[in-house]
Amino acid sequence: MKAALDVHYAKGKAYAACIVFNTWLDNEPTEIFEAVVPFSARYRSGRFYERELPCLLSVLNQTKHRYSTIVIDGFVHLKVSVGKGLGAHLYESLPYSSVVIGVAKSRSKAADCFIPIFRGRSKKPLYISSAGCDVEKAAKSILRMHGPNRIPTLLLLADQHARRIKRINCDDI
Which residues contact 153 (CB under 8 A, 6 or more apart)? Predict the structure, then answer.
């Protein structure tokens, strides 16, 4: 079992989505989980994990599953001078063994140990990094994911679902 996670922020809260799937070729999730998490950590360059990690762990805890692979929006590794990336912090925080793959849409000067891949007809790469498996294997897995476009179908769904949770909750305020 695999999971794709994404988080969006508004009005002092984080909205996390977890898209559960079985194979890299799946075009629909087997389950969707969500979490709304109050947060106080502001974005700090190189310390994004302070803001995002609690959200990822919260939505993962709601699922009660153990995932062989977790895909996040972001980098796994940062340069040693900066510290660990979000994915490395997640990898170390899990109470079970899992591969963590980072899929970043933009290059970061602070990131390290990633490779660019091109999906579909896009001229813009995705930047792949990983913990628990070789980065080339991680990149091949993301290339295999369903969808003709740059962003794989289930990663796009995680993004859309987190945004939907945010819209619903912000409209209630």
Answer: 27, 145, 146, 147
Three-state secondary structure call for residue 108 = coil
Both tokens of residue 32? 């969707």
Q: Do the Cβ atoms of 36 and 88 come closer than 8 Å?
A: no
Sorting pLDDT into bands at 50, 70 and 90, what band is 105?
Answer: very high
Q: Where are the beta strands (DSSP E) in 74-120?
A: 99-104, 115-117
**Could you tell me whether strands 99-104 and 69-73 are parallel, antiparallel, or unpaired per DSSP bridges?**
parallel
The structure's pTM equals: 0.91
Secondary structure tally for the chain: helices H, strands E = 4, 7
Write down how long the chain is: 173
How far is it, in rounded angstroms, from Cα 113 to Cα 76? Answer: 8
Q: Which domains does the chain have, with CATH numbers?
A: 2-171 (3.30.2170.10)
